[in-house]
Amino acid sequence: MQIVLIYLLILTFLYIFFVLLHIFLFLLLRKYYINIRTRKKKRYYEMIYKKIVSYISGKDLSLRRSLVVNKRWKKEVIVDVLFEVAATLNGDEEFERLHNVSDRIGLTEDLIAKMKNIKKSFIVAEATRNAGKLKLKSLVLLFKENLYSTDYDTWNSAARALVNTGCHQILIDFLIEKEHVLKEWSIIRITDMLKNISDEDIVYMYDKIDEVSPLLKGLFIEIIGLKRGTFALFKIESFLFSEQKELRLKSLKALADIGMTTKQKLILQFLNSDDWVLKIHALQVVKSCKLFLAVPDITQLLSDSNWWVRFRAAEVLCELGEAGELALTKIRNKSADPFARDMANLMRIRI
Amino acid sequence: MWALFSTLFYFLNIFIIYYVLIINVFYLVLFVFSIKQINFYLKRMPYSEYEEISLSSHIPPISIVVPAFNEEKTIIDNIYSLLQLTYSEYEIIVVNDGSEDGTLHHMINRFHMIELPAYPIQDKIDTNAILAVYRSIDYPSLLLVDKLNGGKADALNAGINVSNYPYFCSVDADSLLEPNSLSKAMAPFFEDGEDVVACGGIVRIANGCHIKAGYIRGVGLPKNLLALHQVIEYLRSFLVGRLGLSKLNNLLIISGAFGIFRKKEILEIGGYATDTVGEDMEIIVRLQKFLSETKRNGKVLFVPDPVCWTEAPETFRELFNQRTRWHLGLLETMIKHKSLVFNPAYKSMGLFAMPYFLLVELLGPIIELVGTIFILVGLYLGIVNIPFAILFFSATLIYGVFLSIGAILLEEYSFRRYPRVTDLLKLFIVSIIENFWYRQMNSIFRIWAFVRFFKRDTSWGLLTRKGFGENQSEKTRAM
Fold first, then answer.
1. Interface test mutation site (partner A, options B391, B398, B414, max chain A beta carbons within 10 A)
2. Measured between beta carbons, which residues in chain B are less than 8 angstroms from residue A25?
C-alpha cells in the first residue's frame, strides 16, 4: 500500500514536472520572441509616431489614406501612440483627426464593443478608461451608464472618462445625487478628478454649493480656489465664519490659491489661533495675498511651539520683501527667544 | 532493539509520506490562489489609478520609518531612493538605533541636519531613550531620531512615536524603493469596499542590479551563486506563498523591508514586540488576532507590484546568521501565539494559516532532515530498499523543483523584471540545482534556530554591508 502510494505520488509529480518543463521551454521561447518583438515595436514606434503626429497636427494629411495595419502588434503600437498623443492635444480639429486614426485601425469600434457587450468588469473598465483617454465624446452616454455601475473599477473608470471628455457637470450631478451613498474616499476621488474643470463648469459647481453636505462643500470650495474663481470670493470668505474647522481650512486654502481677500483682519485673527493647522493655512493666505500688515503677527509666530508654524512663518517673512527681511534680521540679532533666533538663522542658511 | 528500530522506521516512513502529501496540498492550494490573484492584479493594472492618486493632495500622508543600525554604507542611497518617491505628502523618519559607525554623522552632514531641541514626541509606546531629533534643512520632511540601542523593534516603535501621520511605512535601511512603490502599495487603502489595515509589497534582490543615487537603473541577476539562489527563494516566498495567503486573507507576515500600516490599529495592539527577533511576523500575527477577536473587517494584503530592492547576503556566514534569525523569529512567534494553532475560533487563520506556518515552515526543515537521516541510516542497515529510497528522494526533489519553477512561471507571466533570455535560463538551472545543496544547507541553518532558542541567543550576528553599486565591504559589529 505504501509503495503504491509512493508510486502514485512520484507519477503525479513526474507528470507535473514534465508539464512544467514544457511550460518553461514555452516561456523561454516566448521571452525570446517577446524581446525580438519589443525591438521591432520600438523601431516601428519611432517611425509611426512622427507620421501620426504630423497627421494629427495637420502638417501631413496623407496618413489617413496610407495607414494600413495588417498586424496586431502594429495596432498595439499605434494605440499606444494615440494614447500618448491624446494627452497633449487641445483643439477639436486635432481630436477629430485622432479619432479618424482610431476609427481607421478599428480601435473605436473595439472599445464600443467591449464597453457594451462584455460582462467582465475589468474589460469594461479598461475600455472605458481608454475611450476616455481618446476623449471619445460620442460615447458620453455609455460613460454615464457605466457611472452608475455597482462595480468600483467600472464607475471609477467612467468618472475618469467623463472628466477627460469634459463632461464635468454630469459628475457634479452624480456626486450630489450619490453623496449619501458613496464612501467618503470615493467622493474625494471623484472631486479630485474635477480639478481641471472648465470655467463654465466652475460656475455650475458654485451654484450647487448650498445644496450639498459640508464634505462636498469643502471640496467644491477647494476646486474653485484652485481655479482662482474670484467671482466666488465672498462666498468662500463666508465659510471663514463656519463652525466647522474643515470648512474654515478649505476656505483659507482657497483664498491662498486665489491670492485675494477682503477679510484681512480675520486672517490676522487666524494667525493667532490656538490651532497650528489654521495658523499654517492663514500664513499661506498672507504669503499669497502679500499682507504686509501681518508682519508683526508673523514675527510673533517665530516663537510658536510648533516647529512647522515657526518654519512657515519664517518662510513667509522671506517672501514679504524688505519689511519681512528686516523683521527676520531683527529676530536673528535681538530676539530673546532662542527658537525664534534659530529659525531666523535657519532661513538665512537656506537662502 | 532491532524490531523496535524497524517498527519506528516503518511508522516514520508513513508519517513522512503523509507529511509530504500534506505540504504538497498546502503549496498547491497557495499556488492556485497565487495564479488567481496575479491574474486579477494584471487585469486591473491597465486602468490602475495609482499615478493620479499619488499626486492628489487628499491622500493620507505617510510617515516612512527607517530603523538603522550601523548602516553607513547604505543609508544615504536608501534616503535618496525615499526622497524620489512619487507621493504627495510623506515624511521620512530615520531612527539611528545607537549605531557605532558613521551612520549618524553621514546623515547629519549629507542632508544638513540640525538638532531640534524639545521636539514633541508622543510616547504612545515605551521605547529606549531618545537622545536627539534632527531635521534636514534641505529636506524639511526628513527627520533623524538618535536613540539608545534597543533593537529593530524598539527603533520602529520610536519612529511611530515621532511620526505625525495616520499611516506609517517601515523600510529597511539597506533597501531601495522604486519611485512608484509607495503609490502602488497605498492604492489598496483607497479602493472601494476594502478596509485595509496593512499592506506589503514584494522584496527583490538588488545584488547584480545597476544602482545609482538610490535609483535602480537596470535590473540584473547577481553573479554570486548564493545571492542567485536567494532570487529564486524570494520569488517563491512572495509570489507563491504570500500572494496565495493574501488572497485567502491569511497573510501572517509582511516583510520588515517594506510594509505599510494604519497607525491606529498598531497603537491599539501596542506596537512592535521587542522580545522577539521576528518582529515583522509577530506584529502581523498579533494584528490578525486582534482583528479577529474584535470582529473587525480589516485586511492585511500583499501587493505583488510595488518593489523594494534589498541587499542579500553573499557569504555563508551572513546567510547562516540571517536564516537562523528568521527561523528563530518564526519559532518565537509560533510559541507566543500557540493558542491560535488549530483553533476554530480564529477561522481560516487558526485552521489553515497557523498550521501551515507550523507544519511547513517551522517544522519542515527538521522533518526533512530527520527523514533524510533515517533513510540513509536505513539504507546502511539494509532496512530500506533502494527503490524506496530513490522514490523518496525523487519526491522531495520534484516537489522542490515544482515550487521553484512555479515561482519563476508566475514571475514570467506577470512582471518579467529580468529581461534577458539568459536570465530565465539561469533561474531555471538554479531552481533545479538548489535542491541538491542549497535547500539542505538552508534546512540545516534553520534547524540551528532551535539550538539558538534553547541557548537564548537573540543576537543578529555578523552583518556586512557592501553598499549599493560599490564593491567595498566593511565588517561591522553585531547588534
1. B398
2. none
CB within 8 A of A220, min separation 6: which ones? A191, A205, A206, A208, A209, A212
List b or e across B149-174, with b for residues whose CB sees 16 or more CB atoms inside 10 angstroms: ebbbbbbbbbbbbbbebebbbbbbbb
Q: Are B395 and A12 in contact (CB under 8 A)?
A: no
Distance CA A159, CA A164 (A): 9
Question: What span, in angstroms and rounded, lies between the C-alpha atoms of A83 and A68?
Answer: 19
Contact pairs from chain A to chain B, CB under 8 Å: 110
Instruction: Say how far apart CA B144 and CA B147 lie, in whole Å.
Output: 10
B130-136 and B113-115 strand pairing: antiparallel
Task: Give the three-class secondary structure for B191.
Answer: coil
Chain A positions in Cβ-Cβ contact with residue B192 (cut-off 8 Å): 152, 156, 183, 185-186
How deeply is A1 buried, as exposed, middle or buried, from its count of CB atoms within 10 A (0-12, 13-18, 19+)? exposed
Residues 167-206 on B with a CB inside 8 Å of A are 190-193
**Is B126 in contact with B154 (CB distance < 8 Å)?**
no
Mean pLDDT of B99-123: 89
Other Cβ atoms less than 10 A from the Cβ of B261: the count is 26
Cα(B186)–Cα(B315) distance, rounded to whole angstroms? 35
Q: A156 and B49 in contact by Cβ < 8 A?
A: yes
Helices and strands (H, E) in chain B, number of each type: 17, 14
Chain A contact present for B58, CB below 8 A: yes
Cβ–Cβ < 8 Å for B203, B310: yes
Q: What is the pLDDT of residues A114-165, one digit of tens each?
A: 988 767 889 999 999 999 999 999 999 999 999 998 888 899 999 999 999 9
Q: What is the ipTM of this complex?
A: 0.80
CB A272 within 8 A of CB A287: no
Kind of pairing between the strands at B196-205 and B142-147: unpaired
| pLDDT in the model for residue A242 | 93
Is the CB of A10 less than 8 angstroms away from the CB of B421?
A: no
Q: Is B17–A13 a contact, with Cβ atoms under 8 angstroms apart?
A: no
- pLDDT per position in chain A (351 positions), as tens? 667 776 776 777 778 778 877 888 888 898 999 999 999 999 999 999 999 999 998 888 877 666 778 889 999 999 999 999 998 988 889 999 999 999 989 999 999 999 887 678 899 999 999 999 999 999 999 999 999 988 888 999 999 999 999 999 999 999 999 988 888 888 888 888 998 898 899 999 999 999 999 999 999 999 999 999 999 999 999 999 999 999 999 999 999 999 999 999 999 999 999 999 999 999 999 999 999 999 999 999 998 988 889 989 999 999 898 888 888 889 888 888 888 888 888 777 665
The 10s digit of each residue's pLDDT in B216-274 is 889 999 999 999 999 999 999 898 888 888 988 889 999 989 999 999 999 999 999 99
Angle at A271 between CA A269 and CA A273, to 5 degrees: 75
- Mutation to test the B interface, candidates A1, A4, A9, A129, most B Cβ within 10 Å: A9
For the segment A317-333, what is each residue's pLDDT rounded down to a tens digit? 998 988 888 888 898 88
Determine, for residues A24 and B421 on separate chains, whether the beta-carbon distance falls below 8 Å.
no
Say if residues A61 and A55 touch (Cβ distance below 8 Å). Answer: yes
**What whole-number distance in Å separates Cα of residue A94 and Cα of residue A108?**
16
- Pairing state between β B130-136 and B62-68: unpaired
pLDDT of residue B299: 92
- Which residues of A fall within a CB distance of 8 Å from B406? 20
Sign of the dihedral defined by the CA atoms of residues A20, A23, A29, A33, in that order: negative
pTM: 0.87
Of B137, B391, B424, the CB nearest to A27: B424
**Nearest-CB residue to B421 (from A10, A31, A307):** A31
Count of beta carbons in the 10 Å neighbourhood of residue A75: 15
